UniProtKB/TrEMBL annotation:
InterPro entries: ARM-type_fold, eIF5-mimic_regulator, HEAT_5MP1_2, W2_5MP1/2, W2_domain. Residues 249-415 form the W2 domain. This is W2 domain-containing protein. Belongs to the BZW family. Residues 1-29 are annotated as: Disordered. It comes from the Eukaryota. The lineage of its organism: Eukaryota, Metazoa, Ecdysozoa, Arthropoda, Hexapoda. SUPFAM superfamilies: ARM repeat (SSF48371). Gene3D superfamilies: 1.25.40.180. It comes from Parnassius mnemosyne.
Length: 419
């Protein structure tokens, strides 16, 4: 019995084959035709459509034509710039696609599974899909209104399951998409669908992950970009939670801005009276309350100090440094709430900076003598400190001073009674 002799494969032949493959003409139309024919044979059955896609990956070049796969599954055919579908070729379009499907969520979820399973099977398609979505969203204006709704609902499902990052929505911040509320309507549909499908916690998490919470205003048309329009638009879709998140982020940003502005002004040694007016204007503009401003002032002023390493000299040095800024602190410590906030900040600072632990009472006394802190607030703090940091030690430091305040108060009251 003669043995079958295998022909040796020369390395040169391999190289030739590889070069021939590389020179193979790029033919997205031919790939689309093969895909459309297979999907049409499935007759609208998404399970059969997925089986075809799963098997076709071994015959068709998914790595090279990944974008075409997603064009076909979303729009039914090859997408042209602007959003229309190319009608060139033998079989240019299939109805087994998102744009031809019903917009109800059950149908959308069934399509979601096709995408999830396909990308799980061919992992390299994941990155391609993110790029595809950036392209498709730019074409939004070219789609029909109902197609936009379907795409928004699918985008919500893809964001929810991790197929695309939430930050992909930022491609909508584009002048031609902002006009006529296209971008705004789209993101509202996405957000409302994520909330409906996965709950408000997932929605908030998605926004934070995409760093969108501070950028919601950017989805509004330029001529209507205001907090009022944002509030009414989001409230109309039941998205009040996102408004709260947006305001918190905007507020945090404003505090950072005010902090940096104050640090810059302190470095330039600007007169305190000018600082007061500038801070007042910034605080009013961004609705930052005095009790928060006074805490920021303390933090910035103390960051400017260069402290002596000897504890016995530190308290006097810190008091002297602070004395320059007492008019600034006093300007924003006009309410009991602001005074308590300042006193709590002093307490926490002295606790967190160990060398200041023994300086606490001296700093409070200086702030009392310069009319920044009132005796009522000091006594209130002594009875019930807001913070537990260093509480026992600081209460002990303040004991004699508080006793003196209480006796002075009693003398004052008895004097009034005699009158």
């Amino acid at each position: 019995m003669s043995q079958k002799v295998e022909k040796p494969v020369l390395s040169g032949q391999r190289i030739k084959t590889r070069k021939r493959d590389e020179k193979e003409k790029y033919d997205p139309n031919g790939f689309r035709d093969a895909l459309v024919q297979g999907l049409e044979r499935a007759g609208g059955d998404l399970e059969a459509a997925y089986k075809f896609l799963d098997a076709a990956g071994s015959k068709l070049d998914y790595r090279r034509y990944g974008e075409v796969i997603f064009d076909v599954l979303i729009a039914g055919g090859l997408l042209l710039p602007g959003g229309s579908v190319s009608m060139d070729g033998e079989t240019p379009k299939t109805n087994t696609c998102i744009f031809a499907a019903s917009e109800d969520m059950e149908t959308m979820r069934n399509f979601e599974q096709v995408f999830v399973k396909l990308m799980r099977r061919y992992k390299y398609l994941e990155k391609m899909f993110e790029e595809e979505m950036k392209k498709v969203l730019v074409y939004l204006k070219g789609f029909e209104p109902l197609q936009r709704i379907k795409l928004a609902r699918m985008t919500a499902l893809w964001i929810g399951n991790g197929c695309v990052p939430p930050s992909v929505l930022l491609v909508l911040v584009n002048e031609h998409l902002l006009k006529d509320n296209l971008a705004l309507d789209f993101v509202l549909e996405v957000f409302a669908t994520v909330k409906q499908e996965r709950g408000v916690t997932s929605l908030v998490t998605a926004l934070k992950k995409g760093q969108l919470e501070g950028r919601l205003l950017e989805f509004l048309p330029l001529n209507r970009r205001s907090e009022e329009v944002l509030a009414s638009s989001f409230a109309s879709r039941g998205l009040a939670e996102l408004l709260r998140l947006h305001r918190a982020q905007a507020s945090q940003e404003a505090r950072r801005e005010l902090t940096q502005a104050l640090l810059d002004e302190l470095a330039d040694e600007k007169p305190v009276r000018d600082l007061i007016q500038e801070l007042r204007d910034m605080a009013q503009k961004h609705s930052i309350p005095d009790h928060e401003v006074v805490a920021i002032i303390w933090q910035c002023v103390m960051s400017r100090g260069e402290w002596n390493k000897k504890e016995e000299l530190l308290a006097e040095q810190a008091a002297k440094h602070l004395r320059n800024y007492t008019p600034l602190l006093a300007a924003f410590a006009q309410s009991a709430k602001a005074e308590i906030a300042l006193l709590t900040k002093v307490q926490e600072y002295c606790y967190e900076n160990m060398s200041f632990m023994r300086a606490f009472s001296k700093l409070v006394l200086m702030l009392y003598k310069t009319n920044v802190l009132s005796e009522e607030v000091i006594l209130k703090w002594y009875r019930d400190p807001n913070s537990s940091k260093g509480k026992v030690m600081f209460l002990d430091q303040m004991k004699k001073f508080v006793e003196w305040l209480q006796s002075a108060e009693e003398e004052s009251e008895s004097g009034e009674d005699e009158d």
